[in-house]
Amino acid sequence: MKDLREPLRELIECGLPQALEVMGERWSFMILRASFNGVHHFEEFLSELGIARNILSNRLAKLVEHDILKREPCPDDRRKVEYRLTPKGFDLLPAMLSLRQWGQKYGVEVEENPVIVDEIDRLPIGPVSILSHDGRTLTHEDLCMVNREDLGKRVDGTVAEDNCCKREPGEFPRLIDGVELKRAG
Amino acid sequence: MKDLREPLRELIECGLPQALEVMGERWSFMILRASFNGVHHFEEFLSELGIARNILSNRLAKLVEHDILKREPCPDDRRKVEYRLTPKGFDLLPAMLSLRQWGQKYGVEVEENPVIVDEIDRLPIGPVSILSHDGRTLTHEDLCMVNREDLGKRVDGTVAEDNCCKREPGEFPRLIDGVELKRAG
DNA sequence: TGTTTCAGTTGCAAAAGACAACCAGTTGCG
DNA sequence: CGCAACTGGTTGTCTTTTGCAACTGAAACA
How far apart (Å, rounded) are the C-alpha atoms in residues B82 and B73? Predict the structure, then answer.
């Protein structure tokens, strides 16, 4: 009965494992960053990242397979191959930038020299943010998790309490237990 | 002279490698997600994630070492240890959510059952977004990279062109080449 | 007191990554 | 044309990381 935990795990299933299947692998994000920076060719990635050839080959193939990059022969020079971001790849920009900003905030000082700016006013962008459906900026304190059926329902009742440890303010309530209770009952 | 590319690589140095040092390792993000969901104990992570004991031990130690989680003995039961998010850990929420939303958008359909909502109106949050300094939502098409010295300067001059391949709309201009030119000249 | 739980550690097999060498199509050049 | 150089790989070997199972030591429990 080692699979007992399986349904429990499924309850908090979300897009994260799927995202990590590709982007969780080493070098994937670095390759993506290079792509955003306009790197398109194998040897270019190679020298830019300092990655092993076979790993780069493998990673590029996987990114192409997952439709994050597209692979096309270069018209000018048929030896060359072009790797370019697909729309799906471009959609990873918020993830990459928020990671990057986090690293910047807490890492040792790095003076990010080419700065990412808003093209219009040429001023640095703000932090990548969690927004409510109507555009308010939310912090982790403003969030909680509810069951799909209870969307939009304002509840004034008490929140299910953890049996051992109290919930930190801003941490998602452990709905897992609540749901488990529902299923059992 | 194999180190010739080193200074080139440094030019686009940013927080990403630093972020990936911890969060790029396998399981780190899954452990983080569990933490956000209120998981605090070793055995809990173990059954929730289906990870090997030694790897979990190693990963938790590394997250603690990097001040993403804090490790404290449980007051109620001195066998137990509590792992809790630090402010630095909470700051990874945008990165985790944007990854998650991306996985959700492009992955096979998963009905994210505990839905993350705004606590106030209990409606699902919007997409994690890139904002300008004054709060406008930006897409990848609105961004570009400039040198630190040129911040705020509106330039009407032409943009440095790639020698081989044209830049896709929305892709960051390859300032690497431009900068290299400047340094050389 | 013996048993169970918790948070690990240790040893071993398997998978993934790094490094270097080799290879097949271009391409540029004399 | 003939040949060296370039590009984008592949293959083989070694090292590191991961996964699995068994074991440990301290605390709780019965």
Answer: 6
Cβ of A78 less than 7 A from strand C:
yes
Task: Please list every residue in chain B whose beta carbon sits closer than 8 Å to the beta carbon of residue A162.
Answer: 38
Pairing of strands A143-146, B69-73: unpaired
Kindly report the three-state secondary structure assignment for every residue of chain B: CHHHHHHHHHHCCCCHHHHHHHHCCCCHHHHHHHHHCCCCCHHHHHHHHCCCHHHHHHHHHHHHHCCCEEEEECCCCCCCEEEEECHHHHCCHHHHHHHHHHHHHHCCCCCCCCEEEECCCCCECCCCEEECCCCCEECHHHEEEEEHHHCCCCCCCCCCCCCCCCCCCCCCCCHHHHHHHHHHC
**Are A82 and B165 a contacting pair at CB < 8 A?**
yes
At A90-112, the pLDDT tens digits run: 999 999 999 999 999 998 877 78
Is A65 an 8 Å CB contact of chain B?
no
pTM (two decimals): 0.87
CA separation for the pair A5, A10 (Å, rounded): 9
Interface A:B, Cβ pairs < 8 A: 368
Dihedral (C-alpha) A95, B21, A63, A18: value to the nearest 10 degrees? -60
Q: Cβ distance B110 to B104 under 8 Å?
A: yes
Residue pLDDT, tens place only, B136-178: 999 999 999 988 888 887 655 444 343 445 566 667 755 433 3
Q: Give the closest of A77, A95, A164 to B98, CB-based.
A: A95
**Which residues in chain A touch residue B29, judged by CB atoms under 8 angstroms apart?**
16, 20, 24
| A3 touching chain B per CB within 8 A | no
